[in-house]
Amino acid sequence: MKGGWISFLGTSAQQHQKSPKNVKTPPYAPSFPKIHTVPLYLYPGFFVQPTVAIQPFPYDSVGGIVVYMEFRFILVEPSVPENVGFVARALKTLGFHSLALVNSELHKHEKTKWVAHGSWEILEQTAEYPTVEDAVKDLDFIVATTARRRTLNHDYHTPKDLRRLLQEKEGVVHRVGLLFGREESGLTNTELAVAHCVSSIPLSGTYPSLNLAQAVLVYAYELSPIQTATSSHVETRISKVETFSVLRARVQRILRAIGLEDENLVGKRLVERLALLSASDLRLVHSLCARIENVLSLQEEKKG
Predict the structure, then answer these.
(1) 225-261: per-residue pLDDT in tens?
(2) Residue (of 8, 48, 49, 2) closest to 28 by Cα position
(3) At residue 73, what are phi and psi to the nearest 5 degrees?
(4) What does the pLDDT read at residue 36?
(5) What pTM value is reported for the model?
(6) Is the dihedral of CA 76, 77, 83, 87 positive or negative?
């Protein structure tokens, strides 16, 4: 793993109460600035205690421009308090600050706070939303995560591909939301449809599924190079006219105007593919939309 390593050490509940003197770090660990030990409760009497050494990434750049983005990790109706606690710890470890829950108050649960030891400020600042639509309405770009492929979408991006895809949108995307579904059933098709793109972690084995907290950790690690410490440290220079969400809505209006309604397969596919375009390509689409809108407006005037 580039930039860090993760080792999982199983300990009993009795052993966990003692100082983890038996935790050995690899020879190269001292070169990392800090080692974080996070207890993860799996079932009564057993813990997995991952020791994670993280090497801070430099901010990535695209064409010499530093990419800064804000990320909101959104958990939809989580049911296991320990998962929420571990997510908070993972986000804190990797430099993220924004956690949101949909239709849940598990961030206030005592078990959540116990697992999130040292990351309580993440829980205290956790936002609560009644629906997915409310949780994402102020975001520029929305990513839905899923463990299984659906017929609803054609393009599925790995966390690594997602990182590159977002890096290419510097200047048109600033606030990014990542949707994580329920532990048992994931996201519904309606919730997936809210997203601008869909991501899935490639897995091998007969049971291709990760724990919710593990999945969040994978995405947080992969995206950590392009997140910013706090929005107050970076001046947002993105025009609202240029944001991805505005362009997507603009393209959808034009498609309806030329007879391609929202359920039309060609129109749906075209809107889905917008997520693959770079910032420069998206600006070209904005210019094209302006010309199409002018033509449509002239046609309406002639009819009138």
Answers:
(1) 886 533 334 444 445 546 788 888 888 888 888 888 7
(2) 2
(3) -95, 115
(4) 41
(5) 0.68
(6) positive
Which residues, including other chains, have CB under 8 Å from residue 17's CB and lie 6 or more apart? none
Q: What distance in Å separates the CA atoms of residue 229 and residue 213, rounded to the nearest whole number? A: 21
Burial of 158 (0-12, 13-18, 19+ CB in 10 A): middle
Question: Cα(62)–Cα(65) distance, rounded to whole angstroms?
Answer: 5
Q: Which long-range contacts (CB under 8 A, 24 or more apart) does 296-299 make?
A: 296/254, 296/257, 296/258
> Which residues neighbour 230 within 8 Å (Cβ) at sequence distance 6 or greater?
97
pLDDT, residue 17, reads 41
For residues 33 and 16, is the Cβ–Cβ distance under 8 A?
no
Helices (H) and strands (E) in the chain, counts: 11, 13
Tokens of 231: 């929005």
- In the chain, which stretches have pLDDT less than 50? 1-66, 229-238, 241
pLDDT at res. 152: 59
> How many Cβ atoms are within 10 Å of 17's Cβ, its own excluded?
8
> pLDDT tens-digit profile of 156-183?
899 999 999 998 888 788 899 999 999 8
- pLDDT number for residue 226: 84
Give φ, ψ of 197 to 5 degrees.
Answer: -155, 165
Tokens coding 208 = 């291709």
Start-end of H helices in 41-97: 81-93
- CA-based end-to-end distance of the chain: 64
Residues in the chain: 304
DSSP 186: B
Instruction: Confirm if 48 and 42 have CB atoms less than 8 A apart.
Output: yes
Token couple for 266: 């060609």
